[in-house]
């Protein structure tokens, strides 16, 4: 089943996952367009992540969580042929950091998985959450649940581990593919966003202090 899952996931003609879209006409779509426009304008990324005046913080976080999910998916999708059961039998970030998988269904205890298995579980889990109307409501006037920011912290913490793994284990592949600038920009944007809203425990950030190379965090 794992091999089948990976075959579907890593079909080169598609992005790593079906992209989650925002419905045109909704406030969140407008926010998404606003965020994309400021990104494209080449503004300082530290400024880009700040909450626009008058906007709801939960809407702003929701838009970014979905967008980062889509973009990190794409990044991992392009690397996935270099990240195999053989090359990466453990989901790790160098020798010091190992990430185990845990969820509420199949893996109730933290479980060692290979990096590709971990990525597969992670992307399925995030997709399930962001498509759950009780957690990421899309209808106007439907409030976010009380635990919304906690859920986002968990999603973003786990997405950060994708950067950790890709930078530490597959950086040569990123360079060979000419994707270095793209990955670095996405990482910086993500990093400034989580710092702006204190969405990840700072200890989680330790594996990438000083990454990308030449960029001081």
């Amino acid at each position: 089943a794992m091999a089948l899952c990976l075959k579907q996931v890593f079909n080169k003609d598609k992005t790593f996952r079906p992209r989650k879209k925002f419905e045109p006409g909704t406030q969140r779509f407008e926010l998404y367009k606003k965020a994309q426009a400021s990104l494209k304008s080449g503004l300082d990324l530290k400024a880009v992540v700040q909450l626009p005046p008058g906007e709801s913080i939960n809407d702003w976080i929701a838009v970014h969580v979905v967008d980062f999910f889509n973009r990190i998916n794409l990044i991992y999708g392009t690397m996935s042929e270099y990240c195999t059961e053989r090359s990466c039998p453990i989901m790790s970030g160098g020798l010091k950091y190992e990430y185990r998988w845990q969820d509420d269904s199949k893996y109730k205890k933290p479980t060692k998985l290979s990096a590709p298995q971990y990525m597969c579980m992670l992307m399925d889990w995030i997709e399930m959450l962001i498509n759950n109307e009780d957690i990421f409501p899309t209808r106007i006037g439907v409030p976010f649940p009380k635990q919304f920011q906690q859920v986002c912290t968990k999603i973003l913490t786990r997405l950060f581990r994708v950067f950790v793994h890709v930078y530490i284990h597959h950086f040569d592949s990123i360079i060979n593919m000419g994707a270095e600038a793209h990955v670095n920009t996405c990482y910086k944007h993500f990093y400034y966003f989580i710092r702006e809203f204190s969405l990840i425990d700072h200890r989680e950030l330790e594996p990438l202090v000083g990454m990308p190379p030449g960029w001081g965090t």
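The radius of gyration is 17 Å. DSSP finds seven helices and two strands in the chain.
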